[in-house]
Amino acid sequence: MTRRGFTLIELLMSVIITAIMMTVCFITFNTTIRCWQRSAAVADTVRNAEYALTQVVSGLRSAYYPTTGKQDYAYGFQLYDNGEEPDDSDTIQWIKLGTSIVGNRSQLSETPHTVRVWVQKEGRDGPGGLWVKAGRLDLLADDEDVEVDFNDDEQFEPYPLIEGVQGFDCKVQSKPDSVEGDGTPKWEDTWDTSNSVPYRVKLTFWMEPAKDAGDPVPIMRVVEIPLWDISQNPVTVSSEEGAAGGKKGGKSSSGNKGGQKMPPTNMPPDRQAPVMPPRGPMG
């Protein structure tokens, strides 16, 4: 009985078939890994955006406005419009209460404080992303030799809140009846009535795209500011009523008009937007 072996052609064919199968398996495996990595990067981007938006939205919802019986530029919402492209960045500033943006370990969370939010490009001053400046101006107001300036980075040092934010656009709806012809909210890029707060704010964060993912990812949120009506009509209340929320009228027997006294935010009463933060380019 003769025993027949493999011919050279048969060996070559088996090698070629094996190589093709291994190549297909490698391409499939590599594609799967890249898709998983891209999905994980996109998920991280979305989580970062949600975190940033949650912080800013919570800060706007906890906006502070005293019920002293008059409108005051020191407590109004400030908006500096710098375009609405993915690489542009607006700047917003207001006074708030609570732990949002500043964190629960900050002493600022226990009292009204000023916050400023913008997007800064990566540079020698720090990483790119969403930046914040926060502080209480009254901490320096007792020193006559110090001119309190919220734009001074040595007095109030800015810090990055989160990386991965490429651009920031803010629009406002001035009042509930500010609508377009079709009944949708009328969104504006400017806020000239800076002695009060707008009715609604629309925030859009442009997140840096994940690797090989294409264009920047827009994440948008609309928030209604609860103190809009109080900023429009900051009724005079007693100190006790002011602490309870400032929704009742009247004046205390001691003549105290109520509301917490806050220092000015150095925003001139000429309805101008705040000076842009001096650290690094802004969009």
Give the gist of this structure:
This protein is of the alpha+beta class and 283 residues long.
Explain what you see.
With 283 residues, the protein is an alpha+beta fold. It has one domain (41-244). The protein contains four helices and eight strands; from the N terminus they run αββββαββββαα. It has helices at 8-61, 138-141, 228-232, 239-244; strands at 78-80, 91-96, 113-120, 129-135, 159-163, 165-173, 200-207, 217-224. The strands form two sheets. The chain has a five-stranded antiparallel sheet with strand order 1-2-3-4-5, covered by helices on one side. Strand 3 and strand 4 (129-135) form a beta hairpin. The longest helix has 54 residues, at 8-61. It is elongated, with a radius of gyration of 28 Å. The model is unreliable at 238-283 (pLDDT under 50).
Based on the model shown, name its key terms.
single chain; about 280 residues; alpha+beta; three-stranded antiparallel beta sheet; 8 strands; about 25% helix; about 20% strand; elongated; disordered C terminus
